[in-house]
């Protein structure tokens, strides 16, 4: 059984989708802990499912490295097989990434390498793109530059706003994430191989 930790900043919609999937006895992964960088709304999902959680407030640490070191210490208590970033709005320092890679994955609301960064949906609309998408990647030291594990195209419709387009992307992100975690757990998706195959 693959053990998973999830790190969040907000409402935790991807977290909730993973918790729902893991509630099925046939799903080969279990979430063992949820962490947040603030008193995030999504921690309520962990509580509802009886999953332990921790909070490491960003503002209480003098540097990104000090904050990440405390997050790392909390995760090491549980020693998960996989860490999922689920809307965590913090750039993790290289020391943290090196400690968990390649067992550190993230979702992104674009068809990478198109539109990396924090405003992917807005950027797609500003560029006049006719399609965008959703991706699941291995986290590396860049901004959304890690090996791509799964992705899917999504049409940009006439009249789309940032909100309407993002709302259509989210369910695809969740589905891709649930499938990627399943494939990692079943051994049909090897994260070490994905990293080795990624261009340096």
Automatic annotation (TrEMBL):
- PROSITE patterns (alphabetical): GART
Q: Which reaction does it catalyse?
A: N(1)-(5-phospho-beta-D-ribosyl)glycinamide + (6R)-10-formyltetrahydrofolate = N(2)-formyl-N(1)-(5-phospho-beta-D-ribosyl)glycinamide + (6S)-5,6,7,8-tetrahydrofolate + H(+)
Where does the chain cross the membrane?
Answer: none
Identify the catalytic residues.
108
Which residues does (6R)-10-formyltetrahydrofolate bind?
64, 89-92, 106
**Which residues are annotated as site, described as Raises pKa of active site His?**
144
Q: Does the keyword Ribonucleoprotein apply?
A: no
Domain Formyl transferase N-terminal positions: 4-181
Q: Which residues take part in binding N(1)-(5-phospho-beta-D-ribosyl)glycinamide?
A: 12-14
Under SUPFAM superfamilies, the record lists: Formyltransferase (SSF53328)
Class of this enzyme: transferase
Q: Name one GO molecular function term.
A: phosphoribosylglycinamide formyltransferase activity
Identify the keywords attached in UniProt to this record, alphabetized: Purine biosynthesis, Transferase
Q: In which pathway does it act?
A: Purine metabolism; IMP biosynthesis via de novo pathway; N(2)-formyl-N(1)-(5-phospho-D-ribosyl)glycinamide from N(1)-(5-phospho-D-ribosyl)glycinamide (10-formyl THF route): step 1/1
Q: Which GO terms describe its biological process?
A: 'de novo' IMP biosynthetic process
Function as written in the Swiss-Prot or TrEMBL entry = Catalyzes the transfer of a formyl group from 10-formyltetrahydrofolate to 5-phospho-ribosyl-glycinamide (GAR), producing 5-phospho-ribosyl-N-formylglycinamide (FGAR) and tetrahydrofolate.
Instruction: State the NCBIfam families in the record.
Output: PurN
Matching entries from HAMAP family are given as: PurN (MF_01930)
The UniProt entry's sequence similarity note says:
Belongs to the GART family.
Per its record, how is this protein called by name? Phosphoribosylglycinamide formyltransferase
- Organism annotation: Microbacterium pseudoresistens
């Amino acid at each position: 059984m693959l053990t998973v930790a999830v790190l969040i900043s907000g409402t935790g919609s991807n977290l909730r989708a993973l918790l729902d999937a893991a509630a099925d006895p046939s799903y080969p992964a279990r979430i063992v802990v949820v962490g947040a960088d603030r008193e995030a709304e999504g921690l309520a999902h962990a509580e509802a499912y009886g999953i332990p959680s921790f909070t490491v407030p960003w503002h209480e640490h003098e540097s990104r490295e000090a904050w990440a070191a405390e997050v790392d210490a909390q995760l090491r208590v549980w020693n998960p097989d996989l860490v999922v970033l689920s809307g965590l709005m913090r750039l993790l320092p290289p020391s943290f990434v090196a400690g968990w890679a390649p067992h550190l994955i993230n979702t992104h609301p674009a068809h990478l390498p198109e539109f990396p960064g924090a405003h992917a949906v807005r950027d797609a609309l500003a560029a006049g793109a006719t399609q965008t998408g959703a991706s699941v990647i291995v986290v590396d030291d860049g901004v959304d530059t890690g090996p791509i594990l799964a992705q899917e195209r999504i049409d940009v419709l006439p009249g789309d706003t940032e909100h309407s387009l993002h709302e259509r992307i989210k369910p695809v992100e969740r589905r891709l994430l649930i499938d990627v975690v399943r494939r990692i757990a079943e051994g049909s998706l090897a994260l070490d191989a994905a990293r080795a195959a990624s261009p340096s």
